[in-house]
Amino acid sequence: MFVRNAWYCAGWDEAVGIGANDLVVRQIAGRSILLYRTGEGRLVAMEDRCPHRSAPLSLGRKEGDAIRCMYHGMLFGPDGACRQVPGMDRIPEGAVAATLPVVEKDNWIWVWLGDPARADPELICFAIGPSDPDWVLRTSHLRVDTGYREEIANLADLSHVSWVHGLTFAGSDDWGYIKPRHRLNPRGIETRYCVRGVPAPAFARHLFADDARFDINVHVRMTVPCNFILSFAVHEAEAGGAPNEPSRGKLLLDTFSSQAVTPRDAGSVDYYFSWGTSRETNFPGIVDLMHRTNMDAFLEDKRILEGQRARLLQYPGAPQVDIVHDAGPGRMLWVLDQLLAEEAAEAGAA
Amino acid sequence: MSGDWISVRLADKRLVAEDVAALLLEPADGTALPPFAAGAHVDVELPGGLVRQYSLCNAPGDPGRYELGVLLDRQGRGGSRAVHEQLAVGQAIRIGRPRNLFPLVPAEHSVLLAGGIGITPILAMAEQLAADGAGFELHYFVRSPERAAFVDRLAAPRFGDRCRLHVGDRIPPSFDAPALFDAPRAGHHLYVCGPNAFMDAVLDGARAGGWPDDRLHSERFAAAALPAGDDRPFEIEVEGSGAIVAVAPGQSAAEALAAAGICIPLSCEQGICGTCLTTVVGGVPDHRDSYLSDAERAANDCFTPCCSRAATPRLVIQL
């Protein structure tokens, strides 16, 4: 169900502080992962389970760079090795809490669920973080009760923008008629197109004349498990121009959104996202408006995805019809399934 | 169409089950129709220029006529509606020569499984095996008794008690699946034809029970619902790799590429979703999808290898 050898986003770096009570637990692909920082601020990712009797270590106590399980007092270092069993002189074999490779990049925390020897930081998806000096970005987080395959299908096909986001992102139903070509990568897809001659989106309609028209250059990079990196550049509409060619109209607002969807389990995901403008095209108030709109829009997605999940559970295995907009989801899920099949074959051979 | 058209006359047409019409075709000019083997199908030219493939279901030794069974698909693309609503007894129509992508192979015992209208090639197989005195059993799965076609033929003395009817959804409990699937005996071959979900259930069950692929034979009639064209063989060259892959009739371009180790992403496999869309840099595709618009087809720069073929001997693709 989940690719093991992949980096999973465990949220924004600021969520894990160095306070005494900063013990953060994330549900990631069916596992409970404890995140904390040592005194030097170094991140530790550890299975949130004491190897003694499975008590959550997140109910424990930070002691320097170590964590003490507050059930029977066992103390574990940041490498997971047990340092002390109160009342016992020797540390029993196997008294090790499993740790996971963890990396901070672009203000995101990434943990690797698979073989630590293969935890290559180069495989972490490209993103732009809120601390990047060239961008003005705001971040947020949302839980959605849906499967991550449904999230992939949502993000790999933006035709839904017209219908789901009519009160926020969409200014017309033009998104429902785009038919992009999706380039295949070893761990995802890359898609570029231009939505041409559209009115301002609903959330910014009041800022422009009624007859103002825009071209939007869209560049999406998706990677497994479900990372969605979006460049969304608003240009003055130019005459003519093909949907698969970028607009050369004057750049009005250069926006960027980094979104990581981490499956918690089979039926829920954690969604970490940012949106904002380049420093150059920024103007007062715009990023605040985008930030509010982004949350409103993702609540629109949440509503439809959770409704969909309810129906999927109610009608298990019911036939589904394919349509022309399924190419992106089809490709992204195919990439995912290839990786899952490879891991299944490796597991079978081992 | 491969080969020449044959002119025939619709000698009889009657409903043999709910929504199933049996058509009897006789040569228009009194000359003999080409012989056919069990499992064969013919192209049928229908009013409005549609061409559809239907399996021959009469006994292969039956001289001078072809019998077809056609299920009315109200949601279909119009072929079966034309058969049911427009073809009239006595009418002259044209058909292609029989082609066989689903032949019987010599076996000690043949297990024939038919779902719904998939009975047509299976019935011809039963006729052939009975005439040869070969061992076989036939299981016919229908959703309701009214939908069982050709039951009088299946009850004929020449078949003894070898034909069983199973009524219910998918694979009902009257069918002893474990007995059949779980212990494949040497020399036994299994044939299945029917709706995709039924065939998947049968083939998955048989494979899970240990049936080797070379003793499983199947024909999917969903593919026959695609726009008909000439299923000629062609070649695909993968630009820059030097790979040249032959695509056989009855094999999709994606299947041929996969067999050569070149995996194309697939999803619907019916030319609807566009997941497999592949760049074409040479040759002319024979588009059979419903994904590309006319303008996109005219651009001649891509095709859907799950179902589309080539109008030129070779296509050059870019991965």
Automatic annotation (TrEMBL), chain A:
GO biological process: methylation
Alphabetized UniProt keyword annotations: 2Fe-2S, Iron, Iron-sulfur, Metal-binding, Methyltransferase, Monooxygenase, Oxidoreductase, Transferase
Domain Rieske: 7-111
Pfam families named among the record's database cross-references: Rieske, VanA_C
Top-level taxonomic group: Bacteria
SUPFAM superfamilies cross-referenced by the UniProt entry: Bet v1-like, ISP domain
UniProt-listed InterPro entries: Cholesterol_7-desaturase (IPR050584), Rieske_2Fe-2S (IPR017941), Rieske_2Fe-2S_sf (IPR036922), VanA_C_cat (IPR044043)
Gene3D superfamilies to which the protein is assigned, alphabetical: Naphthalene 1,2-dioxygenase Alpha Subunit, Chain A, domain 1, Rieske [2Fe-2S] iron-sulphur domain
A molecular function (GO) term: metal ion binding
Protein name in the entry: Vanillate O-demethylase monooxygenase subunit
Organism, as annotated: Rhizorhabdus histidinilytica
Taxonomic lineage of the native organism: Bacteria, Pseudomonadati, Pseudomonadota, Alphaproteobacteria, Sphingomonadales
Automatic annotation (TrEMBL), chain B:
Species this chain originates from: Rhizorhabdus histidinilytica
InterPro entries: 2Fe-2S_ferredoxin-like_sf, 2Fe-2S_ferredoxin-type, 2Fe2S_fd_BS, Beta-grasp_dom_sf, FAD-bd_FR_type, FNR_nucleotide-bd, MRET, Riboflavin_synthase-like_b-brl
Record CDD domains: fer2, PDR_like
Transmembrane listed as a keyword: no
Domain 2Fe-2S ferredoxin-type: 232-319
Annotated FAD-binding FR-type domain residues: 3-105
Keywords: 2Fe-2S, Flavoprotein, Iron, Iron-sulfur, Metal-binding, Methyltransferase, Oxidoreductase, Transferase
Keyword Signal assigned: no
GO molecular-function term, one example from the UniProt record: oxidoreductase activity
Pfam families for this protein: Fer2
Protein name from the UniProt record: Vanillate O-demethylase ferredoxin subunit
GO biological process: methylation
